[in-house]
Amino acid sequence: MSEFEDSDAEFVVPSLTRPYPLKYLPYIFKSKEWFSFFRTQARRFRETKGILVNTIAELEPHALKFLSNGDSDTPPVYSVGPVLHLKNDTDVTQAEILEWLDEQPAGSVVFLCFGSMGGFSEEQAREIATALEGSGHRFLWSLRRASPNVMKELPREFSNLEEILPQGFIDRMKARGKVIGWAPQAAVLEKPAVGGFISHGRWNSTLESLWFGVPTAIWPLYAEQKFNAFEMVEELGLSVEIRKYWRGDLLLGRTEMELVTAEEIERGIRVLMEQGSDVRKRVKEISQKCHVALMDGGSSRIALRKFLQDVSDNIA
């Protein structure tokens, strides 16, 4: 465990408008064994001729202003996002999931999905199930078992959900929820029935949720996700919190993740699914800006043209 895991220190990140708590840093950024690697990577950024960033100017204006401050040592930055892969090849089971969503009222379903490496212990799965039942909301839950070492083996589905989840949960919830394995995430988020997305918060998933105008509650599990959660909740006000901070990082084999209680999760679900909330309104506004950014005259189209022109000028 990093010596900074319980630190109350904060530091200034030039791309953010507010202090960033040291303990919120992803584990590898606080570990001595990784320090040299990331220091070298950061220094090499200055050796590049330009950086393509998967964002839009309207989403992260403060960060882009800092990176484009005219410093001759800083390479130009081009915000060309959102770059998304929205095509899904669905099998029969996944097609049935999408059909079920078509039958649900608009904005009524909370979708839980945690990426290809996201999985949970049996105890944590029961806490989530209890929260979903208590919330009263419809749900679509992509659930898999945590891997003991996710770098060697990806999470797999639980073999018997009846043994894992609270007794009678499947029968009680069959009228308003589904527990599934792999989910066609983009196709699900596109459905009008989905009113909220509980996600691990990787940047692709975050951009997908914004593209489709679905507010998120970010539950970071590994890599850069703690930083993304801070930015989305505290900095941009585009996500709701389940908990401000918790220990653990699945990517480094630290599967003993701190337990998040059913009460915390249920509270987050209720806030997430609140109709007319400020977060929901801001997400809808940013969603529109994401689409406009890719149109002719949009900020990302302009940035891409500038990038291509700069490439051409440097080749000539």
UniProtKB/TrEMBL annotation:
Pfam families: UDPGT. It comes from the Eukaryota. The keyword ATP-binding does not apply. Keywords: Glycosyltransferase, Transferase. The keyword Transferase applies. InterPro entries: UDP-glycosyltransf_plant, UDP_glucos_trans. CDD domains: GT1_Gtf-like. GO terms for molecular function: quercetin 3-O-glucosyltransferase activity. PANTHER family: GLYCOSYLTRANSFERASE (PTHR48048:SF45). Belongs to the UDP-glycosyltransferase family. This is UDP-glycosyltransferases domain-containing protein. It comes from Brassica campestris.
